[in-house]
Amino acid sequence: MCSATPSSTGAGTCRRRRRSTNGSSATAPVPGGSSSAADTSIASTRPDAVEWPGAGGAPMILRQIEAFQAVIEQGTFSSAAAVIRVSQPTVSKLIQNLERTLGYKLFQRTGSRVVPTPRALALYHEVHRAWRGLDRLASAAQTLRQPAAGHLLVGADPTLSLGFVPKLLALFATAHADVAFTLECENGRILAEALRAGTIDIGFVTRSSPADSVSGQTVVSGEMVCVLPADHRLANANVLHPDDLADEAVIGLLDGTETRRAVDRLFDHMPRRPRSVAEATTGLGACMLAAEGIGVALVPDLSAAAALQAGAAVVVRPFRPIVLYTIDYVLSASAQAQALPAALARFALERGGAIHDAVGQRWLGSVAFTAAMIPVDLPHAASAD
Prior knowledge:
CATH architecture of the largest domain: 3-Layer(aba) Sandwich
Structural class: alpha/beta
CATH topology of the largest domain: D-Maltodextrin-Binding Protein, domain 2
CATH class of the largest domain: Alpha Beta
Distance between the termini: 36 Å
Helix content: 25-40%
Shape: globular
Largest sheet: 9 strands, mixed
Order of helices and strands: EEEEEHHHEEHEHHEHEEEHEHEHEEH
Strand content: 15-25%
């Protein structure tokens, strides 16, 4: 593998790097040359000859990153060494070289264990995302070896990933047997970033994710419901109204959508408003907080269905007056001209209402609501078959 080293003109110079057991690298011959013992002494499932920029432009070797990840996950250098199949001194050297490259400490030593610093934890999060990106690339490359097959990179927020989107993909697959799927489950903000970057083809979210580089459409709308701890004093009510929640501990959504603002407006006229005790970035997260007795959550009906599917000890009650939310699909800029993502989008428009109702009836029973289909137009795309 080659790494591009910036020159003064901005052009890249391609070099082949050879790993060594101490985490450093040296220039190696291009393919066809001889291989040293050091080249085979470290077993790794990922390329370790790619350089990432560190402090002052110094390279981070992927082998160092792999060692860093292992130490974070295992808690000791010895366990990390066993996982990546090297000696403990080698792991120590890899981490030392990485810390020197970055210019800051990654771990505090406490006896036989090591404690990651806040910077290390932040770096670990980014490393985890990077590995997932490489895994997606490998999966897509493998799929493309089969000329007749299609591959869809689909994103969904947590509320939709437990029922709506899997059902949608299962039905779509019956008519497209040669299509493979990768399903990414993230919150709306991360999905919007992935759509802008083109790392997913189509995303399904329970709120709009507008961005200049993406275009979307509403598939179906549903209702906001109240999710209560099973032993809550209002659990036996048939329907809940804003006045019922006066002075109640309430869990709200953090995303600042129009749906959240509509709910807030219902309480504006009340002399005794609900008490906001917690907020969550997803409806499912709000439901799980309610299950722990923190308060009453106002969430999309499919979030409540997802919580029941996950086994949360909650009860679900209708909320009146009705507050609607929407399920939207969003196509990445790179996917808008592609037939397969457009075919899935059209299918979602055709079947989204029925899928919403089926998921609701299964998990919410008598609390399930009939979806309000919203007429939309999708530009015609060629068949994906």
